[in-house]
Design goal:
With 239 residues, this protein is of the alpha/beta class. Helices cover 35% and strands 21% of the residues. The chain contains nine helices and eight strands. The protein has an eight-stranded mixed β-sheet with strand order 3-2-1-4-5-7-6-8. Helix 5 packs across helix 6. It is globular, with a radius of gyration of 17 Å. The relative contact order is 0.15. The C terminus is likely disordered.
């Protein structure tokens, strides 16, 4: 019940972020204009009927701005970073990263309409060079220039997760890897921290890793954290 009430009150939780991050309210206003008469479930069904990926990879869910700011802060993302949002959807996290940190943010999305609208917003707000959207499958795209990879993977299929983990071998050591709803286990990933935050689907864990060159199996959270093994709750203005 408590979590359901938190989800219902997400909109007021977003207001501080909207007006704290310069330009973010303009992005949200354009989202409202472009998506006013569109139904996410219909959009997704129409565009994924013939895509060669499990249907659960395309379940609608968003990272709220309030949770996104906590994630960007925890990952220490700055202007020199290149942030890749894997499965960007409408692009909320991509726009937030670009506007809040000054980094170059790249959203990868397989649904053509989402990519098209996001590019129109980039043009309308003159964000070229700061925010970029690629109509691409992140399982096949070049991820080499990324310094930060973000994957909101709560609903992704196990096969997609396994294929994405195979891409780690090609990443530069030091690259940061953020996954939501998915504790990744790979010998080249070092767990740095974990947070429990409120997303559009409810509370979920965000895991923060760094790519390293090492052998052996990935330790559990308990082995990395001296105190409690479970992630901590989110910040003050969010869940």
């Amino acid at each position: 019940m408590r979590e359901a009430l938190e989800i219902l009150t997400l909109a007021p939780r977003e207001w501080p972020a909207l007006f704290r991050v310069p330009g973010l309210w303009r992005v949200e206003a354009l989202f409202g204009a472009f998506y006013l008469l569109r139904l996410p479930s219909w959009d997704i069904w129409m565009q994924t009927r013939h895509l060669p990926r499990p249907k659960e990879d395309f379940r609608f869910g968003e990272t709220p701005y309030s949770a996104g700011l906590e994630i960007l802060k925890e990952a220490r993302i700055g202007p020199r970073d290149v942030f890749y949002d894997l499965g960007a959807g409408k692009g909320k996290m991509t726009f937030l990263a670009a506007l809040a940190t000054g980094c170059r943010a790249v959203g990868m999305e397989m649904l053509a309409s989402y990519t098209l609208i996001a590019r129109r917003i980039v043009g309308a707000l003159r964000l070229e060079g700061r925010a970029e959207f690629q109509h691409a499958d992140f399982l096949k795209a070049d991820l080499g220039e990324a310094t930060v990879l973000y994957a909101a993977a709560s609903s992704w299929s196990e096969s997609t997760r396994e294929l994405l983990l195979e891409r780690i071998a090609g990443l530069t050591p030091g690259t940061r890897w953020i996954s939501v709803g998915w504790e990744c286990r790979h010998p080249a990933l070092e767990l740095l921290s974990a947070r429990r935050l409120l997303f559009s689907w409810g509370r979920d864990n965000a895991w923060f890793y760094r790519v390293r060159k090492s052998e052996g199996t990935h330790p559990t959270v308990a082995e990395h954290m001296e105190d409690p093994p479970s992630p901590q709750d989110g910040g003050s203005d969010q869940g």
